[in-house]
Write a structure and sequence with these properties.
With 275 residues, the protein is an alpha/beta fold. The protein contains 9 helices and 7 strands.
């Protein structure tokens, strides 16, 4: 199995199908991955709002009633490598959480919404240098959102080589420590006509470390999706598949994918007690 960071470094100087992954960069091939989000934020090489950004939403729970209970939002959706790092994952994160990526309008209007967090690369090239391994994600908001949620779904992008699949494969690998969540995701993607595979092997792909941000939930387990380049490319208009234009140019496979993910979350939540 090829390690994710090795692939990102190699791809930093190679164009990738559909413009989904990082584009060319002057970052040296031997550049070390940031040790953590905290280390990256403190590095003067990059500037927040210029080279990278963070977006999140924590929904208000205001329970002042002595007779009733306010709804408890049980799920958080995250994209630790959004923007230009693993292209398309920011948009997928927002839509899965219940927001249109273009304007954050609730989508569907009457549908459930979930908390979300994402870290995004904003540079025109070289965003792979901003990749922080999920086991090293220590962003304060990300950890607090996950720690306050029963369920965490983490969205990532990978190449077929990383996934151990044939070139050009359109597939999603399902990992994480929550077996029920994994099963529901597998069933819903399969029912939607999306090739779904249970992730195995390297921890970064399988998401089996307790330190992985997807598993830092109240239950100590979550789910991780690794979406291949070709599948992500199919979700956006080919000529508009850029950081700036993806959110306004969503294709049918995008909505098929996010609906399947949301349905899996809904099934999981339906089995969990209301506080």
């Amino acid at each position: 199995m090829i390690r994710r960071r090795t692939l990102l470094t190699a791809l930093a100087t190679t164009p990738v199908l559909g413009g989904v992954a990082a584009t060319t960069t002057a970052t040296p091939a031997v550049a070390a991955e940031p040790a953590s989000n905290t280390a990256l934020y403190a590095d003067p090489t990059w500037t927040e709002g210029v080279d990278w950004s963070r977006r999140s939403r924590r929904h208000l729970i205001d329970d002042q009633s002595t007779t009733g209970r306010a709804p408890f939002l049980r799920s958080t959706v995250i994209a630790p490598h959004g923007g230009g790092i693993e292209g398309g994952t920011s948009e997928l994160c927002l839509a899965t959480a219940g927001y249109h990526p273009a304007d954050l309008a609730p989508t569907p209007a009457a549908g459930p919404v979930h908390d979300f967090w994402m870290f995004e690369g904003l540079m025109s090239s070289g965003n792979g240098a901003l990749h922080v391994t999920s086991t090293h994600c220590d962003d304060t908001i990300a950890r607090s959102l996950c720690a306050g949620s029963l369920n965490v779904l983490s969205l990532h992008g990978c190449t077929p080589e990383q996934a151990g699949l044939e070139a050009g494969a359109k597939a999603v690998l399902i990992g994480g420590l929550n077996p029920t969540f994994r099963q529901y995701l597998l069933e819903e993607f399969t029912a939607a006509g999306i090739r779904a595979v249970t992730a195995s092997g390297e921890e970064e792909i399988a998401g089996i470390s307790p330190d992985n941000i997807c598993n830092r939930s109240l239950l100590g387990m979550g789910a991780q999706l690794e979406i291949t380049t070709a599948l992500r490319a199919s979700m956006f208009a080919t000529s508009k598949n850029t950081v700036a234009e993806r959110a306004q140019n969503l294709e049918t496979p995008f909505w098929t994918f996010t609906l399947a993910a949301r349905t899996a979350i809904a099934r999981l939540e339906a089995e969990q007690p209301v506080r």
